[in-house]
């Protein structure tokens, strides 16, 4: 069986958690392949909102196995809090949640390093979530990291101490005011590690190979968004992992020729959290309305998201880089009430009009070129079939499909799992 893949096509916050939750009934295994607790996947059902940070979004389905892959970085303290929040659902976590031995651990000193590094940058800061993600991936590529499998080894605490001591000397190098009590942080960390050790650790690449060989259906779940990819995103305002389709291969140990469908998720407009260029960003009442109606606040940080019209140049780029086979449009309901809807179809880049994403999209180099379409006034949140869609929404969808050359299979009209319309 091929492995299907689901990922975000913008700067994250596209609604991946909801769609994984919706699709989980079609799969036996949900496998998260990159990122860490800097991600926030929001699921809403039975009138209750749930936010997951590291645990895959299929966890609320009792028949699904959830795998945290080798490409993920895990903060045991945050992971423990997630597990505590799941207790009310009486899930058998020891059977339904499996952790790759090759996943790296976020240490308390990784978070301190993150804070020190960001503080030292002043106005040039990149908008880090300060979760220690970057320093952890730096240790991974620098071959210094501590992995989940190390917790099964007798010398893991010695490795921890050596790495934490090294981090403290690096923190001093940044020469910033950073007050902390490492002993107190370590108390929480070691308690959380003991909880983590009660879960099931696996050699995930072998587990997934055997599962695929035995006909199990697997959905790989990405975090953040394609425009935050360390290689293909708006560098340096990116995350520290590969958020694109290629990341599923390295983050789970799946061969490229075993990838099946690639589901790409995007909002009907565009948002961004933190720093970085954003060609279609709005600073007017339209942008304020999007943010207010769409409840645009980061699920992990709580920071307000910057809002703007849909950027088709960037979206086409993400579709191409990922090899997307089917699209899912989220938050179409948020655009209800706009008389006119704009879509960026080209950039003026250094004085020349282009339709591809260039090397640099900082505002001094790029101006968005817009096409305008009629908006719709109808409330979409009560609709449950495409026959109920207003003509202008259908025209909007048809325009996007023509430009992107990929079908839009799902339209989300609200946060609840029931507010999902299949086309």
Tell me roughly what share of residues is in helical segments: 25-40%
The helix count comes to 12
Strand tally, please? Answer: 20
Strand content: 15-25%
Low-confidence segments: none
Largest beta sheet: strand ordering = 9-7-5-2-10-1-11-15-19-20
Q: Distance between termini?
A: 25 Å
Rg from Cα: 21 Å
Alpha-beta classification: alpha/beta
**Major sheet attributes:** 10 strands, mixed
Mean pLDDT: 93
Morphology call? globular
Characterise the protein shown here:
Helices cover 31% and strands 22% of the residues. It contains 12 helices and 20 strands. The strands form 5 sheets. It has a 10-stranded mixed beta sheet with strand order 9-7-5-2-10-1-11-15-19-20, with helices on both faces. Strands 14, 16, 17 and 18 form a 4-stranded mixed beta sheet that branches. Strands 3-4 form a two-stranded antiparallel ribbon. A hairpin with a 2-residue loop joins strand 3 and strand 4.
Give the topology, please.
Layout: E1 3-8, H1 16-23, E2 29-32, E3 41-45, E4 48-52, E5 65-68, E6 73-74, H2 76-86, H3 93-96, E7 97-100, E8 104-105, H4 108-121, H5 133-141, H6 156-174, H7 182-196, E9 200-202, H8 204-213, E10 218-221, H9 245-252, E11 259-267, E12 270-272, H10 285-293, E13 306-308, E14 310-311, H11 312-322, E15 326-330, E16 340-349, E17 352-354, E18 366-374, H12 391-404, E19 408-412, E20 420-422
Parallel strand pairs: 1-10, 1-11, 2-5, 2-10, 5-7, 6-8, 7-9, 11-15, 14-16, 15-19
Antiparallel strand pairs: 3-4, 12-13, 16-17, 16-18, 19-20
List keywords for this structure.
423 residues, alpha/beta, four-stranded mixed beta sheet, globular
